[in-house]
Design goal:
The protein is an alpha/beta fold and 276 residues long. The chain has eight helices and nine strands. The chain is 42% helix and 15% strand. It is globular.
Length: 276
């Protein structure tokens, strides 16, 4: 049995991961900004569950939840940084305060959690960190520039972290889910308040009032939870785990397009070295 600390468990993927972790017999620290929304997860497994209020943008709460986890279970074996939310706007439409808040949760909150659990993991020379990103970081759809940027920042940090922690026996994986049957495109999605008409045919098509994807996504959150557990428990956890056929297809399409473009511009790319 290992101990998992999962952020953002009130709904969606975070809740599904927590349920699958518990079903697998592990201990779990399940967190949400409103602790009451995760209280039911302790039913029938109170000896293996610690529920806690956690806003990942609050340094005091971050420190306290890790302290309580270590006190209750002796340490955190697996951290899953899942807390986050979407934000849609053309780049020009984005409000500065909203964009900063987005980064505080999706990027800086994850960094705070990583830094809080690492002293214990380093001391034990074991552990796993899973950072939930999005296929959006790769495909960068119009209207999701800020969200894609926040997740791309998370992925860049995760890659470096993996190299830093591998010699210490700690695995690091970034997860890029595709579309899953959660409320990501519903209740939890935010957007710029004032649209600009010139972006109606690009970013405008992704505004909540015209979005038809909520409730029709192909991904099963429970299967995603089981896949993440399998990856963490594998002999060599992956650097990146794509979740969903849509994520795989999109990722490969982007890779193919980048290869074609890099080949098309190779004459300029290779023209900039100092002449021998």
């Amino acid at each position: 049995m290992s101990t998992w600390l999962i952020t953002g468990c009130s709904t969606g993927l975070g809740r599904a991961i927590a349920q699958e972790v518990l079903a697998a017999g592990h201990a779990a620290v399940v967190t949400a900004r409103d602790e009451q929304k995760v209280a039911d997860l302790a039913e029938g497994a109170a000896d293996r569950v610690l529920t806690a209020a956690l806003d990942v943008t609050d340094p005091a709460q971050v420190t306290e939840v890790v302290r309580r986890a270590e006190e209750r279970f002796g340490g955190v074996d697996v951290l899953v940084n899942n807390a986050g939310y979407g934000y849609r706007a053309a780049v020009e439409e984005g409000e500065d305060a909203d964009v900063r808040a987005l980064f505080e949760t999706n990027f800086f909150g994850a960094v705070a959690m990583v830094k809080a659990v690492l002293p214990g993991m380093r001391a034990r020379r074991s552990g796993a960190i899973v950072n939930i990103s999005s296929i959006g970081a790769t495909i960068t759809p119009a209207g999701s520039g800020y969200y894609a940027a926040a997740k791309a920042a998370l992925e860049g940090m995760t890659g470096s972290l993996r190299g830093e922690l591998a010699p210490l026996g700690i695995s690091v994986t970034v997860v890029e889910p595709g579309s899953f049957r959660t409320d990501f495109s519903g209740r939890s999605l935010t957007q710029a308040a004032t649209p600009i008409a010139d972006y109606a045919d690009t970013a405008g098509k992704r505004r909540k009032e015209v979005d038809t994807t909520d409730g029709t996504q192909p991904g099963d959150p429970a299967k995603a939870g089981r896949a993440i557990i399998a990856a963490v428990e594998s002999a060599e956890p992956p650097a990146m785990l794509l979740l969903g056929n849509d994520a795989l297809d999109s990722y490969r399409s982007v890779l193919d397009a980048r290869r074609v473009e890099s080949d098309a511009w190779v004459h300029l790319t290779t023209s900039t070295d100092i002449d021998a």
